[in-house]
């Protein structure tokens, strides 16, 4: 009886309009992320060296470069996840709009990570229901009320194309989903708190080609409302979807710019070698 009531209520109120929560108002002008002479070392070994880039709003920015060059470290620095690395030290600044994220308080860090969401390399559903996964972040940020949470869950499952696949079982365990579905669930979970930026760390590397294409297509659609920063080892993927490119080599930013310009007419010799496959 309980399952029937849940299913009926979730489906029958599907025509109610979704209204973004007032707690999560985006700025009128989309923010840029600015990395300003940023350095990061671990146990004294430099990983990122004097990195200065501006990541544009409402674009897909792909960070490319050889394995071990610092791509993921830079990405995780953008929402301070790099803080958890033992022995890490940083200098310089990173700003979202005019707000520095480097010296923000613990309370401000919670808000920062809402504004800059992360889609991980491998899907990481929480050990709870599909509904609970998406509602989790909302509850942390004080969004309550079962009715509003139902609207949020339904809306973002639709955004990532999962609603029709899971609407009969939203209260079942998220771990029963396929890997591709789990990654879309993680994306919906990030979107549910209405971030301004989405960070994606090799977000399709664990997926089959069909699921990977679905996620890529979602990112292309989502850039109309969000600014997306992706780390990718796959040049073909960057060629397909990047608007802006940051090429890193040995912890240094070598070349940045419009994707078509960088791919078709790279200015730096190292970029030319990387794109030709001479270095990997």
What brief labels describe this structure?
280 residues; alpha/beta; six-stranded mixed β-sheet; four-stranded antiparallel β-sheet; 11 helices; globular; disordered N terminus
Give the topology, please.
Layout (H helix, E strand, L loop, with lengths): L1 H11 L20 E10 L2 E11 L4 E5 L6 H7 L10 E9 L2 E2 L5 H10 E4 L10 H11 L5 H14 L3 H4 L12 H13 L5 E5 L7 H14 L4 E5 L3 H7 L2 E6 L2 E7 H6 L4 H8 L4
Parallel strand pairs: 3-8, 3-9, 6-7, 7-8
Antiparallel strand pairs: 1-2, 1-4, 4-5, 9-10
Helix pairs in contact: 4-5, 4-7, 5-7
Class based on secondary structure composition and strand pairing? alpha/beta
Shape: globular
Can you say what the CATH homologous superfamily is?
Answer: P-loop containing nucleotide triphosphate hydrolases
Strand content: 15-25%
* CATH-derived architecture: 3-Layer(aba) Sandwich
Separation of the first and last Cα atoms:
58 Å
Query: Strand count, sense and closure of the main sheet?
Result: 6 strands, mixed
Mean pLDDT value? 88
Q: How large, in whole angstroms, is the Cα Rg?
A: 20 Å
Q: What is the highest CATH level, the class?
A: Alpha Beta
Can you list the strand order of the major beta sheet? 6-7-8-3-9-10
Low-confidence stretches: 1-13
Run of helices and strands: HEEEHEEHEHHHHEHEHEEHH
Number of strands: 10
């Amino acid at each position: 009886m309980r399952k029937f009531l849940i299913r009926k209520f979730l489906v029958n109120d599907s025509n109610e309009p979704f209204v973004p929560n007032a707690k999560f108002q985006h700025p009128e002008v989309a923010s840029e992320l600015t990395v300003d002479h940023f350095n990061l070392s671990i146990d004294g070994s430099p990983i990122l060296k004097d990195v200065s880039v501006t990541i544009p709003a409402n674009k897909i920015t792909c960070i490319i470069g050889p394995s071990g060059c610092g791509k993921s470290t830079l990405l995780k620095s953008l929402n301070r996840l790099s803080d958890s690395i033992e022995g890490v030290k940083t200098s310089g600044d990173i700003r979202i709009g005019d707000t520095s994220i480097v010296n923000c308080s613990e309370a401000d860090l919670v808000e920062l990570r809402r504004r800059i969401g992360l889609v991980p390399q491998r899907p990481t559903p929480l050990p709870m229901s599909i509904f609970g996964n998406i509602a989790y972040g909302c509850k942390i940020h004080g969004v309550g009320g079962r009715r509003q949470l139902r609207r949020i869950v339904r809306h973002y499952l639709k955004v990532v194309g999962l609603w029709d696949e899971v609407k009969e079982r939203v209260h079942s365990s998220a771990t029963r989903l396929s890997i591709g579905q789990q990654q879309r669930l993680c994306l919906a979970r990030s979107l549910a708190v209405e971030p301004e930026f989405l960070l994606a760390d090799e977000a399709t590397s664990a997926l089959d080609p069909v699921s990977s294409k679905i996620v890529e297509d979602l990112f292309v659609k989502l850039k109309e409302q969000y600014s997306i920063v992706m780390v990718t080892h796959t040049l073909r993927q960057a060629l397909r979807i990047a608007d802006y490119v940051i090429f890193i080599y040995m912890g240094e930013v070598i070349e940045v710019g419009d994707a078509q310009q960088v791919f078709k007419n790279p200015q730096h010799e190292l970029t030319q070698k990387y794109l030709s496959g001479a270095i990997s």
